[in-house]
Amino acid sequence: MNKLVPNWVASTTDRRLAAAAMGFGLLAWVVPFLVSGDTTLRLTREDGPYETVGAIAFFTAAALFAALFVRTWRDDRCWWFLALAGLFFFAGGEEVSWGQRILGWGDVDRAANVQGETTLHNLEIFDTVEGGWLKFPRLFLLFWLGWLVALPLLVGLTEPVQTLARRLRVPIPALVFGLVMLANLALSKTYRPLGLDDVGLERIAEIRECAQAVALVAVGLSFWLRPVRTTTVSAGADQVLSGHSP
Q1: For residue 233, which phi and psi values (nearest 5 degrees)?
Q2: Which residues, including other chains, have CB under 8 Å from residue 34's CB and lie 6 or more apart?
Q3: What is the distance between the alpha carbons of residues 246 and 149, in angstroms, rounded to a whole number?
Q4: Alpha-carbon distance 199 to 96, whole Å?
Q5: In 3D, which of 41, 29, 86 has the Cα closest to residue 202?
């Protein structure tokens, strides 16, 4: 039976996908330097270009992981793919407030939702400072740091984690995608668009979310383009021996 634990070492395809995601991210961050502050505010407004592209990317990532789950259904189904599909579909729905503005559902009581939207991440318990680590951006940060950075590193360097990952059948991404996400995070922390007030700086978060969503599409494509195979990482963590199970 095939074991769906993809090679954590980046293939040529992985590197190309990561480079494309990084290129998009750099372009997304450069654009505000090329336009006026007012234009940047329009680009990063609710349902603006950045948020729309981000939502489409999340839905695309959800579709890719759902397709991966279907592809593994008959032989050796991987429920992690279904969980990831659900997570990214949820993220896409939250980005567009589940169609509230598109379909004209009207406002939600701001006493419960700080932005008056049909979303969970803007509920007062999550959105306020008192929410701490319950804030969705922080939860999402912990998620991708764990899956795209810590897991590939630990699998490559420690045999017990590698064995546990195989036993749990956790899909292991190439570390290069985690590096793309880290680069995007670094840009969001150091970036100071010219001519923007505090409100504008808050809206810059839309650029980070958009770039992150596109990077997740690249991760989904990486899994889709890899064959279902048995993968063994060498003790030195720099060589991969791949073969097909009988």
Answers
A1: -95, 130
A2: none
A3: 32
A4: 20
A5: 41
pLDDT in tens, 74-113: 777 789 999 999 999 988 888 777 666 665 565 554 444 4
Residues 35 and 115: their CA atoms lie apart, in Å, by: 27
Please, what sign has the CA dihedral across residues 128, 129, 131, 133?
positive
Question: What's the pTM value of the predicted model, to 2 decimals?
Answer: 0.79
pLDDT in tens, 206-219: 899 999 999 999 99
Eight-state DSSP code of residue 128: S
What DSSP element (H or E) covers 241?
strand 240-243
Q: Give CA–CA dist 229/242, Å, rounded.
A: 7
Q: How far is CA 116 from the centre of its chain?
A: 25
pLDDT band at 233 (very low <50, low <70, confident <90, very high): very low
**Nearest CA among 129, 145, 221 for reference residue 184:** 145
The region that residue 237 occupies, defined by phi over 0 for left and psi between -120 and 50 for alpha, beta otherwise, is left
